[in-house]
Amino acid sequence: MDTVTLLLFLSGFVLLVVGADILVQGACGLAIAAGVSQLVIGLTIVAYGTSSPEIFVAVLSSWEGKSDLAVGNVVGSNISNILLILGFSAVIAPLVVSRQLVRLEIPLMIGISFLLMLMGIDGKLGKLDGLILCAGAVIYTFLTIYKSRQENQRSQSEANQEQGNTSSNQGFRQTLMQVGMIVIGMVMLLLGSGWLIDGAVKVAQILGVGELIIGLTIVAIGTSLPELATSVAATIRGERDLAVGNAIGSNIFNILLVLGLSGLIAPNGVIVPSPALHFDIPVMIAVAIACLPIFFSGYRIARWEGFLFLGYYIAYTLYLFLHATEHNALAAFSEIMLTFVMPLTVITLVIVALRAFNSNNSN
């Protein structure tokens, strides 16, 4: 691998992470001023901000005709958001899960994951598909923020009275600074995503690995770094609603907004690769469904569940590379996963779900 390719790839990563962090800080400032809850900030503003690397990477990839990279990036990011990010965050400290997430956002995440599979059956996401997905993102964002503002209207009114002595000049300067941070963050994301795509394609060519695999793994992890950094930092600070809301919200926006925009912008639509349709998207759906019984268990993600998530992410990534390189160990690895690991996991999830159901009924 030549030095220029490596520098291009790493520089893209750095710009994506730093740019997303700056964008999130600015967006959070504006959201707090608007008076919405921490969970809603995580589900919308922070999710938008931390999903912005996926937006730029997927849109540019689609425009340049690299649909494998675009689809792989979104599907891989959604899998890593649950298994890697929530898993790692839960290992640091058990995560408390809002009832709203279990009742609304997680079923929505599962539903639009199935919708993506249905839309991709014909082999591509066209402009109509993109329009439907983008409309869903707009409607979801509007309803979520509107509901939160209605619920927080009284507390916001009190906060406004307390801040009555703050000069309008100072408020204007703060708003201008936050908007400036958003613009700077987006410029960095635009540059970083372009460099990352170019570097990823060259890495794929050098390693002899397909763009779909690179998108599902290296690029997906790279564009998920903002979510990882945000969720881990929120967990350490004790803001666990923000940590979980960020991951779930990012998954919703990755499908609705990222692939929606890609479908609208791509000249010939976003081609959905057959391997993604028959394996990776079903894995994404299975991971989303697995959240329900785990999140129902006392509305928290325990440390052992975090380790379970991390273990599955390692297994999934290992399978991708064994399959891509046609390694001799693939058959044995697949047999172990199908014969022992998957059945044990299903049994564990069923037990967790039954205990949670019985506990809820007894209360």
Which keywords apply here?
363 residues; mainly alpha; A middle domain of Talin 1; two-stranded antiparallel sheet; 2% strand; globular
Fraction in helix: over 70%
> How much β-strand is present in the residues?
under 5%
Distance between the termini: 60 Å
Domains, number: 1
Number of strands: 4
Largest sheet: 2 strands, antiparallel
Class, according to the CATH hierarchy?
A: Mainly Alpha
Which structural category do the helix and sheet elements fall into?
mainly alpha
CATH superfamily: NCX, central ion-binding region
**Mind telling me the C-alpha Rg?**
21 Å
Q: Taking all residues together, what is the mean pLDDT? A: 79
Can you characterise this structure?
The chain has a single domain (3-362), classed as Up-down Bundle (A middle domain of Talin 1). The relative contact order is 0.20. It is 85% helix and 2% strand. The chain is globular and about 60 Å long. By secondary structure, it is mainly α. The protein has 13 helices and 4 strands. A two-stranded antiparallel sheet has the order 1-4. Helix 1 (3-34) packs antiparallel against helix 3 (45-63) and helix 9 runs antiparallel to helix 10 (240-265).
